Amino acid sequence: MIGVLLIHGFTGGPYELAPLTERLKAKTDWLVKVPTLPGHGLDLNLFPHTHQEWIETVEAAYEDLKQQVDTIYLVGFSMGGMLAGYLAGKYGADKLVMLSPSRKYLNLIKLTKEVTQLVKDRIIGKLEENFTYKHYHHKQGKIPIKSYLEFVKCVKVTEPYLKDITTPTLVLQGMEDGLVPYQTTHALDKDIPIDIDVIYYLDSKHMICLGDDQEVVVGSVVEYLMKPVHKKEVKETPLT
Is the pLDDT of residue 237 over 60? Predict the structure, then answer.
């Protein structure tokens, strides 16, 4: 039996991956699990929680899934992409999908552009139509500085395990990502020792499973996961 573990991003929740989760459940008979990281979800309470708890949560979910299935696929969004990579590198998996993975930190220039558009929409009375507002307004005032530091620690702890990944890997990245620069994928290609498959979406922002390209994004992930597994060779390190 196949099991899929989907991991949401920092300050987010399972809703960030809902279109993909629903498609997987509709198209397959796989066991699909989407844990909520401590302090996350629509009712944010991040302050008491640490990056260690987030890592322990996904490790426990992985172990629980492993006891029930023969094949494990890992899918992670943003910080969840790094957590999924950590699991693949440390414990192994049959396939790995990283959606807008936060290999680096915030792209403040593009984030400023999104906030500027949000302000403009508020002025002209279209705030409720603004995509960024719809999915981030509930977080206002609920993200302590301490939690941002825990996010940074989470990325730093998980990053070294990327070099141990031998799992077939697909990375999907929006070119208009307002939080994570699309150039981070270049760093991932250097970190992960096998050839990874990468798809860029010209108009997609950070919330890649909820934006205008969600149908093609979800379709690409489902198609990748349903294809037969072909193990990739580890890239040779050039002699110096």
Answer: no
